[in-house]
């Protein structure tokens, strides 16, 4: 049974399940940010634990496929090295899981912080959607909105 499950967990399936799997969590952040279910699943360790398990499984499979995991550190040398790494399916998937996890974490923080500063949900919605698609742009927009509602500028929080 374990072999059948492992055969199901192809990189393509992991990619699809991850993309569709995070959508309910994003919808919770957008529509029911203060609910108990959102706090349990999105604002706790549960989701990062699931995504990090997937991440570790991909690393495990990469090692089994004899792909050069250590070569991943060469990505910092130049843009061509990064491009080369993205041609390897397993490493590209690792980066995608990394991206999805951090964007969801950032969306969770924005949602909680918006409640903390009593920012209207309609205004928080726009940065949340931007974070989903273009992480840093949504963060900057949220900070601009936050400065207006919090009536203070801080460089740390």
Tally of separate domains: 1
Helical residue percent? over 70%
Dominant shape: globular
Radius of gyration: 18 Å
What are the segments in which pLDDT stays under 50 over at least 5 consecutive residues?
none
Question: What's the N-to-C terminus distance?
Answer: 48 Å
Q: How many helices does DSSP assign?
A: 7
Structural class by helix and strand composition: mainly alpha
Element pattern in H and E: HHHHHHH
Beta-strand content: under 5%
Count of beta strands: 0
Mean pLDDT score: 85
Main beta sheet: strand number and arrangement?
A: none
Question: Short summary of the structure?
Answer:
76% of the residues lie in helices and 0% in strands.
Q: How would you describe this structure to a colleague?
A:
There is one protein chain. Helix 6 (89-116) packs across helix 7 (121-150). This protein has one domain. It contains seven helices and no strands. By secondary structure, it is an all-alpha fold.
Topology, please?
Blueprint: H1 2-8, H2 11-31, H3 36-41, H4 46-64, H5 79-86, H6 89-116, H7 121-150
Helix pairs in contact: 2-6, 4-6, 6-7
Question: Which features does this protein show?
Answer:
single chain, about 160 residues, mainly alpha, about 0% strand
């Amino acid at each position: 049974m374990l072999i059948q499950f492992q055969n199901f967990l192809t990189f393509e399936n992991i990619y699809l399940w991850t993309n569709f799997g995070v959508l309910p969590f994003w919808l919770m952040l957008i529509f029911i940010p203060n609910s108990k279910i959102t706090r349990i699943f999105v604002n706790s360790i549960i989701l990062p634990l699931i995504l990090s398990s997937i991440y570790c499984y991909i690393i495990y499979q990469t090692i089994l496929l004899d792909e050069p995991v250590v070569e991943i550190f060469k990505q910092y040398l130049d843009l061509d090295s990064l491009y080369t790494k993205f041609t390897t399916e397993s490493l590209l998937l690792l980066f995608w899981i990394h991206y999805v996890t951090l964007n969801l974490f950032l969306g969770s923080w924005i949602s909680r912080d918006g409640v903390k500063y009593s920012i209207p949900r309609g205004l928080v919605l726009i940065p949340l959607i931007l974070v989903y698609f273009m992480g840093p742009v949504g963060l900057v927009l949220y900070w601009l909105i936050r400065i207006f509602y919090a009536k203070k500028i801080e460089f740390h929080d």
